[in-house]
Design a protein that fits this description.
Structural class: mainly beta
Number of helices: 1
Oligomer: single chain
Shape: elongated
Distance between the termini: 59 Å
Largest sheet: 11 strands, parallel
Helix content: under 10%
CATH superfamily: E3 ubiquitin-protein ligase SopA
Length: 198
Amino acid sequence: MPPAGCLETESDAEGIEESGTSYQGQNLRGSVIRSSVFRSVSFSSADLSDAAISDTVFDSCDFSNADLSSCSLLRVKITSSRLTGAVFSSSRIRDTLIENSAGKYVSFSRSSLRKMRIDLSDFSDSDFSSVSAVQSGIENTELSRASFRGTPLSQFTLTGSNISGIALSENLRELKGARLDAGQALSVIRTLGAEITP
């Protein structure tokens, strides 16, 4: 059984380094975490809602089904981690990188993103609906069947990402001003039920 860590509900943690600990299912609501490093730590099904996390690295961590709604992430790096089913809805995320991670069924709905980048990850079937994004990118990432309803695709760079089957509003307003490569444009056309003929 992994050792217990030092975080608690509404705790204020700074400059800590943990490896192999577990917060699975724990209540960490409102925690403040600064300038810390977590390696192979489990936050699976933990409640991190309203947390404020800054200048922190999460390497090979497990956030599956964790609640990070209404949280604040500032200068955070999440790499080689599992985020399947995590909820970041109504969060403020700034200068944050998520890379080489599994993020199927993640929800960022109604979140504010500034200079957030997702790279080399799987975020298929995820929810980016009603998101406000500035200078953000989702690149080289699996986005098939993700929902972007109410979120202009022009807010993101989508270089190298698979957007086949993405969910859009009926009036397709999300496509206005979007920068898509030829393959992505064809994926959108197929999503609309159109046939491509030679």
